[in-house]
Design brief:
Blueprint lengths: L1 H17 L5 E6 L5 E4 L9 E5 L6 H56 L31
Antiparallel strand pairs: 1-2, 1-3
């Protein structure tokens, strides 16, 4: 059924482009159900229906449509320009963020390396004279004898 509608639409558009000077198109359905469009009046008018074709648009409507099209094209170009500008701005912000993050990492590393207590090692080192505090070790209970 979908293919029939497509065929009808294509046939109708083809017939209207060929005979744009005529205003009446006849639709004929034969006994097998085949649909035919023609501009010549059929012999058996009982099986035919007439289809009135709209006249061509005026020059004024064509110009108005062309102006709308031009405005849409300009709007599309503006949208593309603004999108590229936004992308450039977001890329620049991302670059700055990464530079700041890298600088912070370098600053933290230099603080660790310059701290005399750690001697470049990221964990605190045992200082002589202070007791070493270790977490308690849990050992299983001894079996009773």
């Amino acid at each position: 059924m979908k293919h029939l509608y497509i065929a009808i639409t294509l046939t109708l558009s083809f017939v209207t482009t060929l005979h744009a000077d005529t205003d009446t198109i006849y639709k004929i359905i034969d006994d097998q159900g085949n649909v035919t469009y023609t501009t010549t009046p059929p012999v058996d008018k009982e099986k035919a229906t007439t289809i009135d074709v709209a006249p061509e648009p005026s020059e004024e409507r064509i110009n108005a449509a062309q102006e709308r099209h031009d405005q849409n094209v300009k709007a599309g170009e503006i949208m593309v320009e603004t999108r590229t500008e936004r992308e450039k701005i977001s890329q620049e912000k991302e670059r700055i963020r990464k530079e700041k993050q890298l600088q912070q990492q370098q600053d933290q590393q230099s603080e660790v390396n310059n701290n005399p207590q750690h001697f470049g090692y990221p964990y605190p080192r045992h200082v002589p004279g202070k007791p070493v505090v270790r977490p308690p070790v849990h050992r299983p209970a001894r079996p009773m004898r």
